[in-house]
Amino acid sequence: MIITVTANGSVERTMSTSGLTTSGVFRAHNVVLLASGKGTNAARAAHILGHPVICTGFIAGHSGRLLAQLASEEGLPSRWTAIDGETRAAVIIVDDQTPGQDAFLISEPGMSTTAADWQRLKDDVLAVADFNGGIVCLAGSVPPGTPLKAYSELVATLQNRGHKVWVDVEVPALSAALVARPAGIKINRNETDNLLGQTPENIPEIVEAAQAIRAKGAGTVIITLGKAGAVFVDGQQAWLVQPPNVSAISTVGSGDAFLGGLAVGLAREEPVAEILRRAAAAGAANTLQIGGGRLRLADYEKLLPQVQVKPLPLSKSH
Q1: What's the pLDDT at 127?
Q2: Which fold has domain 2-18+28-312?
Q3: With the C-alpha atoms ordered 263, 268, 272, 274, is the resulting torsion angle positive or negative?
Q4: Is this prediction's pTM over 0.90?
């Protein structure tokens, strides 16, 4: 089982248009409405790949009820924690005349949360995890007012109960999670600057950065590099995974799909090279669709054997 925790979910509306500029009136010719947030997107990708998932996280207000309905309509099992406020909206605009370039993404900050809200979420997540077991992925931004101690305690409690916790979140929540020593974290290269105060520029520096992050508490570290792939580092080995070149439509959500593929491989206890191959193929397949975590299984299966995985030397300074 893969359990995702999305503390700051959203109702995501992705629209395709043509000839987008910074002003004017434009017509959307393709619209996708989804339950979203990084964890839910990762669950979607894992579900498409055929692995059982359960979504958890906060929902609030009319938008929260819509999020829950959309997830249910996709066949994503869930146990949501309802709180006061309103689940945020996210709007993504993709120009199909410039495919693969950065989309416009506008997202609300989300509802505020309290320590009591986080205790209820913790109870719900533990109930699901203790009953089902498996991999637990905490992913995405945290709502305004999130007590970071509560975030750290959620990771620690899950780990102490024997669950393998993976975290994909930005600083400062990432720093709080590292205190609890999660099984693994996934971040992108730019986020290492916020954590370490420097952005690695080449593969040896990325390996060294991953080892430095491991020293802060993570069992395994994956640093994603966009279309260049990702670097995996644990206590014994380092790997570089490189997806094939594709004619991307939109890269929004590809990191979430990567996480979903990664979680599938971890849950099935596959060799590291196969886990990374799954993750990279899922991330690449997502770029051929609009909507976070969406992919066609046929695209994934075509890309999977084209993914390159190779070992890397570990830095001797760590």
Answers
A1: 98
A2: UDP-N-acetylmuramoyl-L-alanine:D-glutamate ligase (3.40.1190)
A3: negative
A4: yes
